[in-house]
């Protein structure tokens, strides 16, 4: 593993040590890249390169547009996703891929929670990713479902993985309780377009087994 700092973000590259294998880009909340890479090995993922980005301004970099806080005492969202995506595509990807044994077979983008939302949003703003992993994605985000239904991705994705904990929608919070309904509607929307997609329901709430759920999504993307 090699870690470099790019514009204040910590970028770690975990090498699969073979040329022509996929590269998956994963934005992380608390630098859990090493654990996720090890979990992916443990479940028998085929060789791949993992590039993780941490030290993110989470409620800014991952948010597609401004939105009020979803939680009591939470931070408001200030839409910085377009700026961060520009940094990812123009600086982070070229720098990370200098470490690889050769150009990747394909690039995927994945994330958990708000980073799952960002992963899906990214394909509407850039054509560099062909597979998406949206694990426990914050698809309750106000206006996001409507955005998906009214916009076209920059390239048609090869496949999209969705997952959610079966207790995530069981909340009194009127914004968050839409998460399962929205995820299912969005997944059905892609399925009806003939895109290879799946929705996996896992036991537990949002904070259970995030590492394992992320590794499971990566494994699915790699095995398509």
UniProtKB/TrEMBL annotation:
InterPro entries: AB_hydrolase_fold, Esterase-like, Mycobacterial_A85_antigen. Gene3D superfamilies: alpha/beta hydrolase. The keyword Hydrolase applies. This is Alpha/beta hydrolase. The keyword Kinase does not apply. Keywords: Hydrolase. GO terms for molecular function: hydrolase activity. PANTHER family: ENTEROCHELIN ESTERASE-RELATED, FERRI-BACILLIBACTIN ESTERASE BESA. It comes from the Bacteria. Transmembrane segments: none annotated. SUPFAM superfamilies: alpha/beta-Hydrolases (SSF53474). Pfam families: Esterase.
């Amino acid at each position: 593993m090699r870690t470099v700092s790019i514009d204040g973000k910590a970028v770690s590259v975990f090498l699969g040590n073979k040329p022509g294998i996929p590269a998956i880009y994963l934005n992380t909340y608390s630098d859990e890249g090493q654990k996720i890479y090890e979990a992916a090995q443990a479940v028998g993922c085929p060789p791949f390169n993992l590039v993780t980005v941490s030290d993110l301004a989470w409620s800014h970099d991952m948010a597609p547009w401004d939105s009020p806080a979803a939680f009591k005492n939470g931070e408001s969202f200030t839409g910085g996703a377009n700026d961060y995506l520009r940094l990812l595509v123009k600086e982070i990807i070229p720098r990370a891929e200098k470490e690889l044994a050769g150009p990747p077979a394909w690039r995927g983008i994945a994330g958990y929670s708000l980073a799952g939302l960002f992963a899906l949003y990214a394909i509407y703003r850039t054509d560099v990713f062909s597979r998406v992993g949206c694990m426990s994605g914050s698809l309750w985000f106000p206006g996001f479902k409507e955005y998906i239904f009214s916009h076209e991705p920059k390239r048609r994705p090869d496949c999209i993985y969705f997952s959610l904990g079966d207790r995530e929608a069981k909340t009194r919070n009127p914004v968050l309780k839409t998460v399962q309904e929205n995820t299912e509607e969005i997944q059905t929307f892609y399925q009806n377009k003939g895109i290879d997609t799946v929705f996996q329901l896992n036991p537990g709430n949002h904070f259970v087994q995030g590492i394992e759920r992320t590794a499971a999504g990566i494994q699915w993307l790699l095995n398509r």
